[in-house]
Structures are given as structure tokens and as C-alpha cells.
């Protein structure tokens, strides 16, 4: 069993709780220091409360509705995407470090909690759906669709980079294979990353490989609905088998809030061909 793939610990409640400490406990991620990821699956009326501590937080209503408050603000009921595969932009909330938040589900809902070091430079606010639009990327069977929630083009966070990717059945994404595991800006930035996977239909599966060019890490795993994959370093493409559409929510963070990557030298020709 891969040490990078995490299956849900329960069917309801907080089903994922990735922290810097828990990621470091993996023999494959001893240097993990930035990204945290939590996931709640809530029934109507369920409430959760968390302190942000020294991290900033982006809450993503993956699907369903909830009343959300925090940092002395109350945003009322948010969320209008009842099925993630509707592909509509999600409602999201940013909360800085040193605050707290509460969510009360008004329907069955899936709530993602994306965390990284916070420095107090951004105020609490609703991030979406305004300002988020579905973007097509790639060609042929490398076509996928992106909801950029909080990438570097939006100055909405201190550390966090967050995006959603929809990969049609039979297609690839996070491809050609690329990595962002060196602190060498502007050539590359060091960014840890988590993938939260969903499949449609839900009994489906997908594939993800995480590997380094020197062979020190090489993990290939089949992912199921609601699995999370840690990417501490290396290349990390995903494939969706025929018949099953794939979604994933990416959370990235590192010492610099910029996304600069390098393609695998054996496969960079694909990128060069498709971007002429």
C-alpha cells in the first residue's frame, strides 16, 4: 500500500485530517512543512468549528450548502453546487491566521479545509463564485477544465494556492509530467501539494504516479472516490480511465506563493508541441 495515498477514515464527519505533523510521519514526506488539508462530510444540521492558529484557511464548499461565519463575520448560507461534477464555480471563504470559523450544514455537504502558513496580510472574505470561471486547458486527450480558486493571479492569500481540475473520462491531467520541488525562482518554486480525488460515477477509480527523476521516489497508485494523495516532490500526473470522469482539488504551498514548474525532460516535447 502506498504511503502517499490516504483513504477516508470514516463515511461522515471529518474524514481527512492532513497536518504538517501527520505528513511528516510518512517515511516519504519527512520534510513536509507547509500544506494541510481537511475534509468534512456533513449531514443537514451538523456543525463544525475550528481555530486557524498560525495558518490561513480557504474553505471550499465542494458540494452542498452551509452557513459559514468566522473572524467576526457572518456570511450566511453559501453554496449552490449540489454535485461537484456540475463544474460550476464553488463558494469559498478565506480566513487569516489567528481567527476561527464555524460551518453548519443546511444540506448534505462536502467541505474542504485548505491550510498553509498565514502572515496576516489578507482579510477574511468570500472568494467565490465571483471571480472564478471554468477554463479549458490542453488538447486532445490531455484536455481538462480548471476552476482557479486562488492561484497566484489572484492576490487573496499569503501562502495558499488552490485550484479545481475536471478531467474527462479517458483523459490525462497534471500532464505532461512536471515537478515543483526546488526553491529556484524564477525557474522553479518549491511547492508541496495535496490532491483530493472524486470520480464520476462514484464507484470508479483513477491512476496517479508520483516519482522523482533519480528514482528515490516512485509510487503508482489507484485512487478511489474521496482519496487524498500527498505530493512531497517529483512528477505527479493523473489518468482517468474510460467511463470515469475525474475531479481533484489541489492545495499547494511553499516558501514563495508562485507556481513555477519543470517538465520531465523525457516528456517535455509534448508540452513544446502543444504550446507552439
Per-chain topology:
Layout: E1 5-6, E2 13-18, H1 20-24, E3 36-42, E4 47-51, E5 55-63, E6 66-70, E7 73-78, E8 92-95, E9 100-105, E10 109-117, E11 125-128, E12 134-137, E13 144-150, E14 161-167, E15 172-173, E16 178-179, E17 192-200, E18 205-211, E19 218-224, E20 228-231, E21 238-239, E22 245-253, E23 262-263, H2 268-274
Antiparallel strand pairs: 1-20, 2-3, 3-10, 4-9, 5-8, 5-10, 6-7, 6-9, 8-11, 12-13, 13-14, 14-22, 15-21, 16-23, 17-20, 17-22, 18-19, 18-21
Summarize the structure in words.
The protein is mainly beta and 276 residues long. It has one domain: Sandwich (Jelly Rolls), CATH 2.60.120.10. It has two helices and 23 strands. The chain has helices at residues 20-24, 268-274; strands at 5-6, 13-18, 36-42, 47-51, 55-63, 66-70, 73-78, 92-95, 100-105, 109-117, 125-128, 134-137, 144-150, 161-167, 172-173, 178-179, 192-200, 205-211, 218-224, 228-231, 238-239, 245-253, 262-263. The chain has a seven-stranded antiparallel sheet, with no helix packed on it. The protein has a six-stranded antiparallel sheet with strand order 2-3-10-5-8-11. A hairpin with a 6-residue loop joins strand 18 (205-211) and strand 19 (218-224). The longest helix is centred in the last third of the chain and has 7 residues, at 268-274. The chain starts with a strand and ends with a helix.
Amino acid at each position: 500500500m502506498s504511503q502517499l495515498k490516504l483513504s477516508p477514515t470514516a463515511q461522515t464527519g471529518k474524514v481527512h485530517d492532513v497536518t504538517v505533523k501527520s505528513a511528516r510521519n510518512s517515511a516519504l514526506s519527512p520534510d513536509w512543512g507547509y500544506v494541510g488539508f481537511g475534509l468534512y462530510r456533513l449531514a443537514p444540521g451538523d456543525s463544525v468549528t475550528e481555530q486557524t492558529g498560525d495558518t490561513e484557511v480557504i474553505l471550499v464548499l465542494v458540494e452542498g450548502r452551509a452557513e459559514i461565519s468566522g473572524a467576526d463575520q457572518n456570511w450566511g448560507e453559501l453554496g449552490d453546487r449540489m454535485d461537484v461534477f456540475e463544474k460550476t464555480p464553488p463558494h469559498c471563504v478565506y480566513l487569516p491566521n489567528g481567527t476561527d470559523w464555524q460551518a453548519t450544514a443546511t444540506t448534505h455537504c462536502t467541505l474542504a479545509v485548505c491550510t498553509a502558513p498565514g502572515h496576516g496580510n489578507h482579510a477574511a472574505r468570500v472568494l467565490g463564485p465571483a471571480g472564478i470561471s471554468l477554463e479549458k486547458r490542453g488538447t486532445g486527450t490531455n484536455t481538462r477544465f480548471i476552476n482557479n480558486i486562488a492561484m497566484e493571479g489572484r492576490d487573496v492569500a499569503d501562502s495558499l494556492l488552490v485550484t479545481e481540475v475536471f478531467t474527462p473520462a479517458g483523459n490525462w491531467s497534471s500532464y505532461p509530467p512536471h515537478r515543483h520541488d526546488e526553491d529556484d525562482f524564477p525557474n522553479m518554486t518549491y511547492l508541496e501539494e495535496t490532491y483530493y480525488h472524486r470520480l464520476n460515477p462514484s464507484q470508479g477509480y483513477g491512476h496517479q504516479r508520483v516519482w522523482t527523476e533519480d528514482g528515490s521516489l516512485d509510487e503508482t497508485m489507484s485512487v478511489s472516490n474521496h482519496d487524498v494523495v500527498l505530493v512531497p516532490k517529483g512528477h505527479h500526473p493523473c489518468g482517468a480511465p474510460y467511463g470515469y470522469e475525474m475531479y481533484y482539488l489541489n492545495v499547494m504551498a511553499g516558501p514563495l506563493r508562485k507556481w513555477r514548474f519543470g517538465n520531465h525532460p523525457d516528456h517535455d516535447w509534448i508540452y513544446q508541441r502543444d504550446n507552439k
